UniProtKB/TrEMBL annotation:
GGDEF domain segment(s): 220-357
Keywords: Phosphoprotein
Enzyme class: transferase
SUPFAM superfamilies the UniProt entry points to: CheY-like, Nucleotide cyclase
Gene3D superfamilies noted in UniProt: 3.30.70.270, 3.40.50.2300
Pfam families linked: GGDEF, Response_reg
Top-level taxon in the UniProt lineage: Bacteria
Entry keyword Glycoprotein: no
Single GO MF annotation: diguanylate cyclase activity
Protein name, as recorded: diguanylate cyclase
Residues annotated as signal peptide: none
Residue ranges constituting the Response regulatory domain according to the UniProt record: 39-156
Gene Ontology CC terms, in alphabetical order: plasma membrane
Length: 359
């Protein structure tokens, strides 16, 4: 077992050689050193102490050693070298060791790095101050090299485990975020119509039923618009199905752009038929909204030579507003709005008809 005699010889030889910082850190310039899992930074103003520690660690091939003799540069050197352990002398000119310990702890890059303070004497008050400042360990210099290596390995292992744990947490959070985004995208695709991007019929049914139940609880008005592209079969026959698909996309865009409230839901009901759920909307508000949509689609100016409504593509809209009664299904609102749509078609298309439930 190595003892104080070893340190004595090392210090004596170091005092004779008086190496500079470049010589002390030369070991870190080799490619192999960069792969060492244990990185030690010694901050001490006495170069012979730096050389003694370097020699004590030289026989450990997996320990990389860095030395800083200038207290004011210590934090910057620690940021650059990213040690797994800092050996910090307590008594230094200009900046004392405890101040440096606090600076390490206040710096995001060095906050969690284990710090072993080195003191010239065993003193309870100094130990207490060191631990209060954020030190992890306390050694009287110079300790037996075996003990020093053991403590360096112990604290390095703890620090590396901490880094691995944090990296695992980051990877887990990233994985969870990616999973959430994937699930949201799958949900969007499940609920969306592939051609128009609006909500599909399945989601429309779910949403209407949910809003119907809410309106039933609150005894509030719920409006529904049923929208049908006029003479769409004739349009497909004249211009082709590709052009017909583009028309449906443009109509869908108008519906989407006119939804000013998050609760308003435009959906593709089926084929060339669309629907819009408008919670908490009065009959007057529903009619105004429907007229706005009808005029917006007409103003697109899409030529339709097969139409009998002026040579341009138009829509007919049936609107209904109900306050749900107990035991009444949401399909009742669809029936009433659909009756209004039928009436708009029968009366010549390109118009809005407000429908009411029959007694």
């Amino acid at each position: 077992m190595l003892n104080q005699d070893v340190w004595g010889r090392a210090i004596k030889e170091a005092s004779m050689q008086q190496p500079d910082n470049t010589a002390i850190t030369a070991i870190t310039d080799t490619p192999a050193a960069n792969s060492y899992p244990v990185m030690v930074l010694l901050v001490d103003d006495q170069a012979m102490i730096g050389e003694a520690v370097r020699r004590a660690l030289a026989s450990e091939p997996d320990i990389d050693f860095h030395y800083c003799a200038t207290p004011d540069d210590a934090v910057a050197v620690a940021e650059r070298t990213r040690p797994t352990v800092i050996l910090q002398d307590l008594v230094m000119p200009g900046v004392d060791g405890l101040t440096l310990v606090r600076r390490y702890r206040d710096n995001a890059a060095t906050r969690d790095i284990p710090i072993i303070v080195l003191s010239t004497k065993e003193e309870a008050a100094m130990k207490s101050a060191a631990f209060s400042a954020g030190a992890n360990d306390y050694l009287v210099k110079l300790p037996d090299s075996i003990e020093l290596v053991a403590r360096i390995r112990y604290h390095s292992r703890s620090y590396l485990n901490l880094l691995q744990r944090d990296e695992a947490y980051r990877a887990l959070r990233q994985s969870q975020q990616q999973l959430l985004e994937t699930n949201l995208e799958l949900q969007r695709l499940t609920n969306s119509d592939g051609l128009t991007g609006l909500s599909n019929r399945r989601y429309f049914d779910e949403y209407l039923n949910a809003e119907w139940k809410r309106a039933q609880r609150e005894q509030s008005q719920l409006a529904l618009l049923m929208i049908d592209v006029d003479a769409f079969k004739a349009y497909n026959d004249t211009y082709g199905h590709v052009a017909g698909d583009e028309v449906l996309r443009r109509v869908a865009a108008v519906l989407r752009d006119n939804c000013s409230r998050p609760a308003d839901l435009p959906a593709r009901f089926g084929g060339e038929e669309f629907s819009m759920v408008l919670p908490s909307t009065s009959p007057g508000g529903a009619r105004l909204f429907a007229e706005k949509v009808r005029r917006a689609i007409e103003s697109l100016g899409i030529a339709h030579s097969g139409a009998d409504t002026g040579g341009f593509l138009t829509v007919s809209i049936g609107a209904a507003v109900l306050v749900p009664e107990d035991g009444q299904p949401s399909s009742r609102l669809v029936e009433v709005a659909d009756a209004g749509l039928y009436e708009a078609k029968r009366n010549g298309r390109n118009q809005v008809v407000m429908a009411w439930p029959r007694a």
